[in-house]
Specification:
About 85% of the residues lie in helices and about 0% in strands. The protein has 10 helices and no strands. The mean pLDDT is about 85. It is found in: Cell membrane; Membrane. One of its GO terms (molecular function) is transmembrane transporter activity.
Length: about 230
């Protein structure tokens, strides 16, 4: 039971982060789509009332699908096209990973928050919209998640440096324990804070996919799609 406690705490923190992401995505969706300033307190209340289950399910599914997608991309890059057997295996694995992303992706939190959908259905509907408007290349090249992760690591490292230095000066015997806990606290606090920009980017993409002709959008996404198409050609 003691071995399961850290994992349980980690899952709890992911649920808290994703609950914040659903709340913020609801607020930013209303702003991008309708120009309405949604009350954060009302949005949070609605998330707890209607979408907490989706936040929990998404916390479990997104971790799995993102890890599979990352490993599939790494396998494809390593295999290349020199070995036919390796190439076919990598292609098959990439297909499975792409299919899994359809059922669980972080952009699904937007529809889960706005329309109170179940997370799997929200993910499927969102991904289908991305495919319909040709937004998949932009989504695949999005670095928001990596940026948020690096910010969390940087925050944890700063907390470790400060906490570890102070402990070395006062209580050397506890330096290791304090450094580890300081890193975890700093990492998760930064990840909670970065839920805001991550939710804003997700809401921006989803609102664009729903209505690319929305006058609130400039030419940033269409230009990016054209650039990616030229690179792939």
């Amino acid at each position: 039971m003691q071995g399961q406690e850290p994992n349980t705490q980690f899952e709890t923190r992911k649920v808290i982060k994703n609950t914040l992401q659903v709340t913020i995505a609801r607020i930013k969706y209303m702003h991008f789509a309708c120009g309405i300033d949604y009350d954060p307190r009302v949005a949070f209340h609605d998330t707890i009332k209607h979408s907490i289950g989706s936040a929990c399910v998404g916390s479990a599914l997104c971790t799995s699908t993102e890890s599979h997608s990352g490993s599939a991309r790494a396998t494809s890059l390593m295999s290349g096209d020199t070995d036919e057997f390796m190439f076919s295996c990598a292609d098959c694995y990439s297909g499975v990973a792409s299919r899994l992303v359809t059922y669980g992706n972080r952009w699904g939190f937007v529809h889960a928050g706005v329309y109170n959908k179940r997370f799997v259905q929200a993910s499927m509907d969102t991904w289908e919209m991305f495919r319909r408007v040709g937004l998949e290349p932009v989504i695949d090249s999005d670095l928001t998640s990596s940026f948020c992760f690096l910010c969390g690591v940087a925050g944890g490292a700063i907390c470790t440096l400060v906490g570890g230095s102070w402990t070395l000066a006062v209580h050397k015997g506890y330096a290791t324990e304090v450094s580890i806990y300081a890193f975890l606290i700093g990492y998760f606090m930064c990840r909670f804070a970065m839920a805001w920009p991550q939710a804003c980017v997700s809401a921006y993409h989803v609102v664009y996919a729903e209505n690319p002709q929305n006058l609130r959008f400039d030419s940033t996404i269409p230009v990016r799609i054209q650039e990616l198409q030229r690179y792939q050609a």
